Amino acid sequence: MKRMPAGVFKARCHAVIKLVQTTGEPVVVTKRGAPVVKVVPAEAYPCIGFPVRRHRHIRITLWEPAWLASHGRLEIPGTVEPYVEEVSSRLAIRPLTARGAVLANQLPPDYSTDPCDRLIGATALAEGIALVTKDSRIRNCKQLSTIW
Q1: What is the pLDDT tens value at each position of the chain, 148 positions in all?
Q2: Is 148 helix (H, G, I), strand (E, B) or coil?
Q3: pTM of the shown model
Q4: Separation between Cα atoms, residue 104 and residue 91, nearest integer Å
Q5: In contact, 136 and 115? CB cutoff 8 Å
Q6: What b/e sequence results for 95-128 when a residue is b if at least 16 CB atoms lie within 10 Å of its CB, and e otherwise?
Q7: Is the dihedral of CA 94, 99, 102, 108 positive or negative?
Q8: Distance between terminal CA atoms of the chain?
Q9: Which residue, 120, 128, 146, 139, is CA-closest to 60?
């Protein structure tokens, strides 16, 4: 995720908005190095503007932020395990079902080849829920309803 000081954001506001709109990648604006706001695409707002408990997640989705944080690709407050515990306490975690496992293998070949992405998408499909993603390969899947 791109970060920039508030002064740079102020000077390049329109260009940053266009970048976020076209890439779907959020930009974090900082003051003295500390994050103060995040600019996100308008399509992402419906999924972040509601209470978190409304969103359902498959258990494997807890692994991804743990992996990203452990590898320095996700900035988190504190250490990894307490962060993942906090996140999981605010989510409705869904089990992987037999139907989800079968559907993961029936997604089209141009869908993500990442097994985690396939399981997450298949679970959304099995439960009839929208999947929140910026990944264009996943958003282009005709079988799934996506947000973002």
Answers
A1: 689 999 999 999 999 988 888 888 888 899 988 888 888 887 766 555 544 445 566 777 788 888 888 988 888 888 999 988 887 887 777 788 899 999 999 999 999 988 889 998 998 899 888 888 878 889 889 999 887 6
A2: coil
A3: 0.58
A4: 22
A5: no
A6: ebeeebeebbeebeeebbeeeebbbbbbbbbbee
A7: negative
A8: 16
A9: 120
CB 131 within 8 A of CB 144: yes
The sign one gets for the Cα dihedral 126, 127, 128, 134 is negative
d(CA 35, CA 63): 24
User: Which residue, 143, 136, 88, is CA-closest to 121?
Assistant: 143
Q: Hey, which residues does 147 pair with through a beta bridge?
A: 132
What are the tokens at 40?
């996100």
- How far apart CA 141 and CA 58 sit, in angstroms, is 19
Domains and CATH numbers, the chain: 2-40 (3.40.1620.10), 46-147 (3.40.50.1010)
